[in-house]
Amino acid sequence: MELTLQQIAAAAGGTCCGENRRIASVVTDSREASDGALYVAICGERFDGHDFCAAAVENGAAAIVCERAPDAAVPYVLVKSTRQALLDIAGLYRETRRDVKLIAITGSVGKTTTKEMVWAVLSEQFQTLKTEGNLNNEIGMPKTLFRIAPETQAAVVEMGMNHFGEIARMTAAAKPDAAIITNIGVSHIEYLGSRDGILKAKTEVLAGMPDGAPLLVNGDDDKLKDFTDKRCRVVHFGIENARADIRAAEIEQTQDGMRFTVCFPGGEQRVALPVIGRHQVYNALAAFGAGLLFGVSPARIAAGLAGYVPAGMRQRIRRAGGVTVIEDCYNASPDSQKAALTVLAKTPAKRRIAVLGDMLELGSFSETAHRQVGAFAAEAGLDALYCVGEASKATAEAASGSLPAYWFAEKSGLFSALREAIRPGDAVLFKASRGMALEEVIQKLYGEWNVQ
User: Mur ligase N-terminal catalytic domain spans which residues (predicted)?
Assistant: First the structure.
């Protein structure tokens, strides 16, 4: 990174106080500061970064961006909002590296999985950077841009949001060359009012893209299948939509994953994807489209998808104690819970047991959504349903007329019941929003089964 403090002050609309130092890196955590670093003092809900300015300087920070004069003897840039300044500085650095092909990924469900698949595809041909973990908000996304290195040729940047304007601010900094919208569901509907509101928020990604840039959207999504915008070139991917530009056909599910043929303008390519579920095919189609847009050959795209590895707690399948365990505890929405239940229903097993926790941030739609999932579970051909959390009581109630359904207020009760119920030969799905920490139950069961 080669930026000066005066350049940063100009980009952030701030006032430079002190000498014009060169900046080698940007951090928001004082513990990560090193020689030549710029420390941005973020004001959070539970902390104030201004309290750690002295610590940042002790660790080598050369300068500070702040909303009030710091208690540290280094040059600083005074700004109205350090959160906005962080985005402005990231945008300044991105402007110096427009040679990097950057694709933004947003949507209600499947962002992180799609990001990982796109990374696997682009890495077949380019030195590719990706968003790490869930750093997809206005604080985390700039950190990805700051990691663009001299050797970086492509970047896959995930953008999440809770409110209007967040993606617009992120895309202004990232300046994507292309973007993907995975789907329009009901995640964060509590803050956005309706699916139309969610569509409006997701399409803010276009604001930072060049006119005519490609936007890949899910052609089977009712809010996206007819989507057009004069600012971009819309490319549809899908399974059911015969008009989709990139389409999957001849889909098969095996114990090891999904097999399908991708039909695209000018050809076809057989793909073997090492994860199961029809919803994963949509993620792979988006990644396939990204590869085509960036000039990766169909064969190399297929090789990248074949090497995809699920991230974190997203639908990892393990065999433990004679039980097939589907771990999917990172996040949950009505669409993703239904997709996971479909995966479970198609998993070979003596019995199929679903363990579902609350779906969070659904606002007034919460009870309806949980009942919809319960009704879906009742028709999915499962053998039992276990639910935990206050909101999931509605899920158990909706399913109880058609299959054995049990509800627990606490995870301790759920664990005790599962320990007695699960037997070798069963397939068990664990799915809930991140805040439910359902993986704690899985780890306790693994402990009972002596699984590392």
Answer: 23-89
Specify the CATH number of the domain 97-306. Answer: 3.40.1190.10
Q: The pTM is what?
A: 0.79
What digits encode the pLDDT tens for the residues 435-451?
899 999 999 999 888 76
At residue 358, does pLDDT exceed 70? yes
Long-range contacts: 203-206, Cβ < 8 Å, 24+? 203/227, 203/229, 204/164, 204/165, 204/166, 204/167, 204/168, 204/171, 205/104, 205/106, 205/159, 205/167, 205/171, 205/176, 205/179, 205/181, 206/171, 206/179, 206/231, 206/232
> Which two tokens mark 294?
């960036």
b (16+ CB within 10 A) / e for 332-353: bbbbbbbbbbbbbbbbebeebb
Cα torsion at 117, 326, 440, 410 (round to 10°)? 120
Q: Which residues are annotated as a binding site?
A: 107-113
Q: Domains of the chain: which residue ranges?
A: 3-83, 97-306, 316-448
Residue with tokens 């039909």: 263
- As a CATH number, domain 316-448 is 3.90.190.20
DSSP 372-438: HHHHHHHHTT-SEEEEESSTTHHHHHHHTTTS-EEEESSHHHHHHHHHHH--TTEEEEEE--GGG-T
**Which residues line the annotated binding site for ATP?**
107-113
Residue 162's identity, in one-letter code, is N
SS3 call for 360: coil
Q: Which pLDDT belongs to residue 452?
A: 56
The fold of the 3-83 domain, in CATH, is 3.40.1390
DSSP letter string over 172-200? Answer: HHH--SEEEE----STTHHHH-SHHHHHH
Written in H, E and C, the secondary structure of 218-247 is: ECCCCCCCCCCCCCEEEEEEECCCCCCCEE
